Amino acid sequence: MLKFLSVGALVLLFSEPMMAQEYEDHNAMLMDHGEGHLMDMAGGMVMGQNADKLPGGCDSISETKEITVHAGHKYAEKFPGRMYAFDIQEFNFKPCTKLTVNFINDDHIRHQWMMHGLPKYLYPKGMFHLEISGPAKISGTLILPPGDKTYLVHCDIAQHMEKGMKAQLKVGKGDGDLPSIPGVTAYTLPDDYKATLPELNAVAEKAAVLAATAAPAPTRIAPAAKPVQKEEPVFSGITVIGLAIGLLLAPFLVKKFKGMSVSEAVAYIFDLLRALIELVVNLLSALIKRISSTKSKMLPGK
Known about the structure:
The protein has four helices and 13 strands. By secondary structure, it is α+β, with helices and mostly antiparallel strands. It has an eight-stranded mixed sheet, with no helix packed on it. Strands 1-11-8-5-6 form a five-stranded mixed sheet, with no helix packed on it.
C-alpha cells in the first residue's frame, strides 16, 4: 500500500508543472527560414512575418496593437450548423497599425489564422499566415496597409472555413462586409426549414407541370410481328422423287426378290442401302477434297 502511495505522489509531483502549462508555446521553437517564414518540426508555422517594413503609403506606424485569438470546436456552438470557429469574428484597426496576433488552438487538430489580400510586394502570396497543430500557441506580427479595406481571415484547412472558421478584419472604415461571417453577416446559402406542407405540394406540382411540358412522352414502339410460318404440303418434293424412284425400281426389285424368303429380302435391302451410303460418302469426300485444293491454289503465295 505504501508503495502505491509513493508512486501516486511522484506522478502528482511531476504532472503539476505540466497541468499548469495548458498550451505549448511554439514561439521559442520557431526557426527563421527567411522572408518572414518561420516554422518548427512540431507543426507550428508563421508566414508573412513583418515587424519593420512599412507598406507603401505608410509614413510611420500609426499604433501598435496585440490581440489573442482562440480557435476551436467549442466556439462554434453558438452558431447553428457550424463546426469550427474563432472566438472573435470581426476585427478593426487603424491603417498602418503594427499588429501582433497570438493564435491559440484549443482543438487536437490543425487550425490556421490566415489573412488574405495583402500587398504581394511586401507579403509573399499576399497573405499573413499562422498555423498550429494541437493545443498550442503561436504568435506573428505584421504591419497593416493604408486605406479603408476589409480583409478575409479564415482557416484554410479543408472544410474548416465552410464549417464556420471565418472572420473579417477591417482596416480603417473597411470597404464593406464579407458574406457568411458567423454572427456578423448572413450565410450566402442559408439552410431553410420553414417550408410548410402546402408549399412543398405546390413546388412538387409545379415541377411535375414543367417536366410534362419540357419532355414529351416517348413514342412506344410496337414489337416486331413474328414471321408467319408456311405450312409444308403433305407431299413434298423429296417424297415425290422417292415415289418416282420406287416406281421405277419396282419391276427390278420384284424380279430380284422372286424366290427369296423374307429374311433374305431384308438382308439384301440392308446390303443395298449400305452400298448406297458408302457411295454417297465417297462422293462427298471427293468433292470436299476438290474444294479444298481449289481454295489453296487461289490463296496468294501458293
